[in-house]
Amino acid sequence: xxxxxxxxxxxxxxxxxxxxxxxxxxxxxxxxxxxxxxxxxxxxxxxxxxxxxxxxxxxxxxxxxxxxxxxxxxxxxxxxxxxxxxxxxxxxxxxxxxxxxxxxxxxxxxxxxxxxxxxxxxxxxxxxxxxxxxxxxxxxxxxxxxxxxxxxxxxxxxxxxxxxxxxxxxxxxxxxxxxxxxxxxxxxxxxxxxxxxxxxxxxxxxxxxxxxxxxxxxxxxxxxxxxxxxxxxxxxxxxxxxxxxxxxxxxxxxxxxxxxxxxxxxxxxxxxxxxxxxxxxxxxxxxxxxxxxxxxxxxxxxxxxxxxxxxxxxxxxxxxxxxxxxxxxxxxxxxxxxxxxxxxxxxxxxxxxxxxxxxxxxxxxxxxxxxxxxxxxxxxxxxxxxxxxxxxxxxxxxxxxxxxxxxxxxxxxxxxxxxxxxxxxxx
Length: 427
Fold this sequence. Notes:
Radius of gyration: 23 Å
Shape: globular
CATH superfamily of the largest domain: Metal-dependent hydrolases
């Protein structure tokens, strides 16, 4: 009996010792540092990480620290992609989409999503906002839980669960009315149903609410891009009011004036895509502090395939998108990085290609980097933890070869990834 008591005492004492053990100390060195705040590049760069937080920047290497020397690389904050669909693996045509909803089980789609999440992390994206599961119900909540519990590797996730549209406003479509099939979103009609849907999604784990504000795009007689709004003004307002009452933000897929105006007037927090935003609505976005998440990559990628599949309007959409993005930038709209990865296959292209498009259509390389660091963190209300490299923040740090301010395509060659103090990729 005394031996048992002694053993238990030793076990208890060792657990106390483990709890008080010093946290791992790591020093990362590289040629330069871009901290995400838009200031001067720091060169050379030294970051000290203790446990999962940044302890100091610059100075000498502490005694006993593990040193990771990255040579002629540039350190940056962990990147944030604020518009992804981890449970979608490409939908250039409706056939691509329907196969995933009709022929793949939720379990199989979740397994494919784990691969997508690992791809994103390897590309340097330590945080993603998933803006709906495309018929996979609340599986994004389980993916987030699995990452948080260490079951799978992946970026920190902010999830939107099912998203919302109206009867006739979302696919799959074109099937016999006698056939019952899963929908890509939660169908909501009427203000009362809208409020209930918001409550349901939040109750099941949604961090954001996602709505589809318009559909059926066409070029109007005056040459502008137009659309059919999905929700009535009353329905849209009910969704936003209920989400805000419950302290959650709302993202709106909105591509042309009818949908964008309806969404902005209701008070949404971000406009997704914003293919053709008129100047007067850009000014309203600036006044309201509404973010634009432009997703230039998906437009460039899917447009040719959709034209080939019979969607002639997609031949005009890239030009509208380039113009709208450039005008939004000039008028001071807050822009957060988003790619719509999942709208293109995760292993087809590197989502960091978005940086190149941002620069091509008007941003400086520093501005582009900030869209995926400080700006995105602010939009997600996470700037106290991530988005910039500062003492006390979480140790989300990535590195690219050379200087991305001289060659923005370096952002597509992330060679080192640390998330929450743990190294997931290194040269």
